[in-house]
Design brief:
The protein is α+β, with helices and mostly antiparallel strands. The protein has 14 helices and 8 strands. A hairpin with a 6-residue loop joins strand 4 and strand 5. Helix 2 packs antiparallel against helix 13, helix 4 packs antiparallel against helix 7 and helix 9 runs antiparallel to helix 10.
């Protein structure tokens, strides 16, 4: 017959000194781990699985990459070509400088005033007037006495008024130097130009044929006089006074060209599935990087929603496994750290900061 053994009763002293073992659950550490997992999952996979491009410009492609879907991408070389063409087609901008016209009118006024003074001067005063006319005729082959004999007293005022009116009309239209005509319009004789006056008027589109050269400007003024010695003399005199007064505005022309280039639409080219995007050993160019980026974006767009969710879930599970492994390592290496929520929070914040920087760099590289 079996007998029951009575459980030994502990004494009062044993009960007082007995250590009660409790299993503390680190709820704060677990909460921080779950929060870190959720934030990192949203940070990296909230917008879908990111397709990273592990190629950089100038790098040799390790393998051939073929398009898996049809997509469209900008042809950079064609776009640049069309934009440069549009910029070159922009008419150059010129500004009319009023100073040469003012100088020409001033010289004509002084010269014909000297003729008036000579006609009214005494015999002793005339040599001084003639000498002063020599200074005004520097750069020409005309002698003062040629002018005195060609313009009698009764025609001086009339000739002076006609010359001043002609200078104003011709030089206000613009006089282009032969240098600009050769350098800017040699290969484009029909290209118009934008002409802006320095008085603040808006620039106007002007044909080249309406712009005078220095020689044609002088002829346009002297052509108002009848054929004869007087006209021949003016043909020699006016080129010294009527000079080019158009200045090329490179800054305004460049701004106009940029505006025209920016208005050109990008050249979009279609790439079919199966098209090689980059071949093995080929140097990566900006065009190839753009092709890979657009191809990746199109693949994401065409990816099934369920497939995206499963892929995100799979990556999240891998991330969770990494966090669990980290906890195990901390548990083995430093078990007391698991219960120190302040240090765990600091580690979580540092991890989030590092991962955030990595995510930003990944986004900028796409």
């Amino acid at each position: 017959m079996k007998t029951k053994r009575k459980k030994k009763q502990k004494g009062i002293a044993e009960r007082k000194t007995e250590i009660v073992r409790t299993h503390d659950v680190p709820y704060k550490a677990i909460g921080l781990g779950v929060l870190l997992w959720l934030i990192v999952s949203w940070l990296f996979f909230g917008q879908g699985v990111v397709r990273t491009i592990d190629l950089s410009e100038g790098q040799k492609a390790p393998s051939t990459i073929v398009a898996a879907v049809d997509f469209e991408c900008e042809n950079l070389s064609e776009t640049v070509f069309n934009r440069n063409k549009a910029a070159r087609a922009v008419p150059p901008v010129f500004i009319i400088d009023p100073a040469p016209a003012e100088r020409a009118r001033k010289m004509v006024n002084i010269l014909y005033d000297r003729l008036d003074q000579y006609a009214a001067a005494t015999t002793n005063q005339r040599p001084g007037i003639v000498n002063s006319m020599y200074d005004l005729l520097i750069g020409t082959s005309i002698e003062p006495f040629d002018l005195i004999s060609a313009f009698p007293t009764n025609s001086i005022a009339e000739t002076k008024a006609a010359l001043l009116a002609g200078i104003k009309q011709v030089m206000s239209a613009g006089v282009l130097s032969d240098e600009y005509r050769v350098t800017l319009f040699r290969d484009a004789p029909d290209l118009p130009l934008m002409l802006s006056k320095s008085d603040g008027e808006p620039a106007q589109l002007v044909a080249q044929k309406d712009i005078y050269s220095t020689r044609k400007a002088a002829w346009a003024i002297s052509g108002k006089f009848e054929e004869g010695p007087k006209r021949k003399l003016l043909d020699q005199l006016l080129p010294a006074f009527v000079i080019d007064n158009m200045t090329y505005d490179e800054t305004a022309t460049a701004a106009l060209g940029k505006t025209a280039a920016d208005a050109v639409e990008p050249v979009i080219q279609e790439y079919l599935a199966g098209t090689p995007l980059v071949r093995a050993g080929e140097a990566v160019t900006p065009q190839i990087l753009l092709l890979l980026k657009e191809h990746a974006q199109q693949r994401v767009k065409e990816q099934d929603v369920l497939e995206q969710m499963l892929e995100i879930l799979g990556n999240s599970i891998l991330l969770l496994a990494g966090l669990i492994a980290t906890v195990v390592i901390l548990r083995v290496g430093n078990p007391d750290l698991i219960r120190q929520s302040e240090k765990l929070l600091l580690m979580a914040l540092l991890s989030l900061f590092t991962l955030g920087i990595a995510r930003l760099l990944t986004y900028l590289c796409l």
